[in-house]
């Protein structure tokens, strides 16, 4: 029977993700020569070539990709084993580490933690604020157990390493100065704001969401000011310096800002959670996911988000 070495398979998987031996060594806290030696030994154990020269770099062979397809099932099963052992040893007690983007922390994570403290006080949730790309690096690296992000920046449903859980469709409203001619309207079309000065971040998810929503409405927004924090954005709107899209989940308000609903095709951002495939069977993690789902459902009902 072919000998399968889990540690060496993890090195091969990391090389597939990182692309180079040097980056793999950095990620695994190894030397490049040790990475190369471990992969050479794995190729001998399996009896197939795993790497081939490609210029000054190496790339995975077809045999290596075949090995990884089967290895993903092995890794998922090991996650299930770890989850079941944790459940056996601790019942519903345990630690769950959650990485979440900024507006999801107060709107979803904190209410879920409060619910769990009453229903399952043995579960300790540790929260780490992180943007979308960082959250999934932390998840893949085992530094968090659950990552909350936006669907556009989450792993695809076909990614064998993760299980994806839809949570919420969060509508985007438009923030206008209270003295704006359109501020009193019950419902606006985004296209009516095509000539306005816009405030949004210079890069990152929120910049992409604003640009995509405006382009879907038939125009490219003129970026008058760049800001990433909601306090700064709303202060500039209040001062009449421009308009901005604001996620309803962010629940940011200022006296001098009018929040207007967009329609009929209101843009939304989709919030999802992801966890390493197989880990969802751990009882503590499953309870946290369920609490997040219940919080998202309640938020959808209260704010008419769904």
Automatic annotation (TrEMBL):
Keyword Zinc: no
PROSITE patterns: HTH_LYSR
UniProt domain HTH lysR-type: residue ranges: 4-61
Protein name (record): LysR family transcriptional regulator
Annotated source species: Streptomyces cavernicola
UniProt cross-references to InterPro entries, sorted A to Z: LysR_HTH_N, LysR_subst-bd, WH-like_DNA-bd_sf, WH_DNA-bd_sf
Domain of life: Bacteria
Gene3D superfamilies named among the record's database cross-references: Periplasmic binding protein-like II, Winged helix-like DNA-binding domain superfamily/Winged helix DNA-binding domain
Keyword Transcription regulation listed: yes
Family the entry assigns: Belongs to the LysR transcriptional regulatory family.
Alphabetized SUPFAM superfamilies for the sequence: Periplasmic binding protein-like II, Winged helix' DNA-binding domain
UniProt KW keywords: DNA-binding, Transcription, Transcription regulation
